[in-house]
From TrEMBL:
Cited PANTHER family: ATP-DEPENDENT DNA HELICASE Q1, DNA HELICASE RECQ FAMILY MEMBER
Annotated spans, Disordered: 516-540
Keyword ATP-binding: yes
Organism: Cohnella thailandensis
Alphabetized Pfam families for the sequence: DEAD, Helicase_C, HRDC, RecQ_Zn_bind, RQC
GO-annotated biological processes: DNA recombination; DNA repair; DNA replication; SOS response
Name this polypeptide is given: DNA helicase RecQ
Enzyme class, UniProt record, top EC level: isomerase
Gene3D superfamilies: HRDC domain (1.10.150.80), P-loop containing nucleotide triphosphate hydrolases (3.40.50.300), Winged helix-like DNA-binding domain superfamily/Winged helix DNA-binding domain (1.10.10.10)
UniProt keyword terms in alphabetical order: ATP-binding, DNA damage, DNA recombination, DNA repair, DNA-binding, Helicase, Hydrolase, Isomerase, Metal-binding, Nucleotide-binding, Zinc
Domain HRDC span(s) in chain numbering: 539-616
Entry EC number(s): 5.6.2.4
Amino acid sequence: MSAEAYPNPNRLDDARRALSRFFGYDSFRRGQETVIQAILEGRDVLGIMPTGAGKSICYQVPAVLLPGVTLVVSPLISLMKDQVDALTETGIPATYINSSLSGKETSERLRAIEDGRYKLVYIAPERLESERFLGLISRIEVPLIAVDEAHCVSQWGHDFRPSYMGIVRILPYLERRPIMAAFTATATDVVKEDILERLRLHAPVRLTTGYARDNLALSVVRNADKRDFLVKYIRERPGQSGIVYAATRREVEACQQHLASLGMRVGKYHAGLTEEERSEVQDAFLRDDLQIIVATNAFGMGIDKSNVRYVVHYNMPKNLEAYYQEAGRAGRDGEPGECVLLYSAADTVTQKFFIEQSEADEERKRNDYRLLHDMVEYANTSDCLQRSIVRYFGEEGGEPCGRCGNCTDTRELRDMTEEAKIIFSCVARMRQRFGVTLTAKVLRGANDAKIRQFGFDSLSVYGMMKSTPEKELVRLIHELIADGYLKLTDSQYPVVQLAERVRGVIEGTEKVLSRVEPEAQATKSRSRYGSGRQDGSHEPYDEALFERLRDLRKKLATREGVPPFIIFNDATLRDMCQRMPADERGMREVKGLGEAKYAKYGAEFLRAISDYKREG
């Protein structure tokens, strides 16, 4: 039977009431209402919504209103637990079935599902290979299947999981075809089409709310002393939660040990640790017992912590999709966050090594090299960083964000048109067949055997930029690539070629502008508590009260055995500090406080606010 089995286009009012009752919000965020209405009309959905946009609400609210049990396919155990804990706190019955449960626990939960005691059940895609589970779902009503992190279904995505290919296996076991809703934060056009095909979505409503994250400030720091930069950066943000991503286990170990030796509350996370060790570190971070996690990309999609204020990439990741997914873990609560990429040319070498050592076929490797080149271009662009990412995902760039490191760069632009023309000429005279490094060597006039072999020492451009350090020449060539004047081929050893945009420079209708590389240093935070809303500032609030409420939240979280952000996120505490409610009516106006949470915690927070006022 088709997904039209559950149409009811007149239930948006019910959805708004559910949003208020369970989640404590008066209105939906951008895009949420469109997706929820489509689901309630029985339509399949593909939602591309950035981290922090509220994708979960898009299937959790319909799940409350639809009959039967909604299945949520989720990639990681920790993510399931956090989602279920959060739903339980709001008063929505939910559970998960995964490998962390004992056989007895699994049996008990399966019986409870069949008895109709839950509205949402979270499962890993591997669960769909269980004949016992498939037998269960054939006996119950499943109106909706929500696929979280749907990019995992695509072999062209950055987190391909073969088990996601089996999701459609569930459909023949159900009496009627459920509504299929797929969600992810990032997906190129190729990945989107892959999701549609592999999940067999029927004429879905396709929603992309935009890739721009208005609360994030992106920046790239090139050629810094990474260790010194990181220490200074963290010290300028006392008390703020942050994630530091490194490319290798060895790098993670060294970085974590150095930060710990300086007295910082820092943990490490990588695939070389035991599952128990990883779980302990992650739980300590979620509970705010650790301020910082240093991790490989193994510390990924399961992180639902809302109050991460910054994400630092100690090394450049393999592609922009991975970077934006990881960077997007800052500011999930909508409050300001910072995303810093520490870039050096050595990072490119590391990522190329990973590609070559992989067991992927040649086509996949070529694609991985292309994605890596896009990442290098991002690291070198002089354009607005937010706009560069938005364009990468196929959207119009729009106006500069005004927040990123490039937009806020106060250095004067330098006219590099003549230098650029020399570089273009060199690329052309080398017949567009060689890489960045050799091009820079020719321009420098290097005494290199390969240059002599090809006769490049006789070119008119040979040595024309000998006063410019090779490192600076390489950076400038990469900047010209990033800004679209040059391009690289998709191969292990990419070749520099001229792009169409060169024509305007050669004909004199366009100038090439660049900025001198500054001394790398950590800048003061744009997102210190007390100074940040989505537009970079927020209404004043009492910071002393905020800290007192944070302490109460931590105490209650310890009592309940859940992370503090499950109780209330920072934005909800800040709203309390601004409103300073004196009674139940005032407290119920606080954003993010639904009926169940008021009944459970409202009186204690009201008492804390009252005591604070009295102490005055």
